Amino acid sequence: MEKKQYKKIVDKHKPTETRAQNAFIAFVTGGLVGVIGQLMTEFYSSYFEISTKDASTFMLVTLIFVASLLTALGFFDKWVTFCKCGLIIPITGFAHSMTSAGIEYKKEGPIYGVGSNIFKLAGSVILYGVVSAWFFGLLRLIIMGG
Amino acid sequence: MIYVYSFLFCGFVCLIGQLILDNTKLTAGHITSIFVVVGSFLDTFSIYDKIINYVGAGALVPITSFGHSLIHGALAKASDMGIMGLLMGMFDLTASGITAAIVFTFIFTLFFQAKN
């Protein structure tokens, strides 16, 4: 009886604790990715003597490259299960979803395996991004004149 | 100081995502899609531009900046070309990211095998 009660209490408290932990980890890792991005942007803009805007494009490409490479090498999946949204919400998650799908479906061939599956998750991001950007852009053109 | 703002903003966006993921039935795919829409919505009123000015790369790294870049490029082209510009400029700013992701994915898919 006591054991059952104990288990009930444990079950009650377990999820909230892990939720708080998850949220904290996501906050810290997500923040760190942001700081790394800022560091890289400043490094590129001073090293190549380009504008901050161009440097931020370089930075995004670098992050995508690193995330893709680490996914291909097999490290990134473990990090994502640990950090969750800390790595999914940054652009690294976009690259991770594409590369992991590509490698997973490699067996099924280059067309119906890799080709049809790399946009399985990233496709929804692009679809809703484009549709919403088109819709909001149209609204802004009509209402505010550009 | 911009590093602190970068940390706080990017962390905050990820925190919201994690809270949605843990407390609702929505999956990571839903959340990234929602965040892209939120990003493009915020840029409709040029709010996201102001955030980027304050926090730098911290606002460019989260997926919300993808939506921001989409609508930003579309509106920039639309100011020259009118309503057709929306279609022509949509991928102007995000082209580098999408192309890089596709190319790297393809190359790595050629060379690496699934672990299991």
Characterise the protein shown here.
The complex is a heterodimer of chains A (146) and B (116). Chain A is mostly helical. Chain A has one domain. Chain A has helices at residues 2-47, 52-73, 76-83, 85-88, 91-104, 110-117, 119-144. Chain A is extended and about 70 Å long. Chain B has 116 residues and is mostly helical. Chain B has one domain (2-111). The N and C termini of chain B lie far apart (44 Å). In chain B, helix 2 runs parallel beside helix 5. Chains A and B meet through helix 1, helix 2, helix 4, helix 5 and helix 7 of A and helix 1, helix 2, helix 4, helix 5 and helix 6 of B.
Strand content of chain A is: under 5%
Number of domains of chain A: 1
What structural class should be given to the helix and strand makeup of chain B?
mainly alpha
Instruction: Figure out the total of helices of chain A.
Output: 7
Biggest interface found: A-B, 72 and 68 residues
Mean pLDDT of chain A: 90
Distance between the termini of chain A: 69 Å
Computed CA radius of gyration of chain B, to the nearest angstrom: 17 Å
Helix content of chain B: over 70%
Task: Specify the helix fraction band of chain A.
Answer: over 70%
What string gives the helices and strands of chain B in order?
HHHHHHH
- Find the count of extended strands of chain A (DSSP E, 2+ residues): 0
Approximate shape of chain B: globular
User: How large, in whole angstroms, is the Cα Rg of chain A?
Assistant: 21 Å
Order of helices and strands of chain A: HHHHHHH
Major sheet characteristics of chain B: none
Q: So what's the overall shape of chain A?
A: extended
The total of beta strands of chain B comes to 0
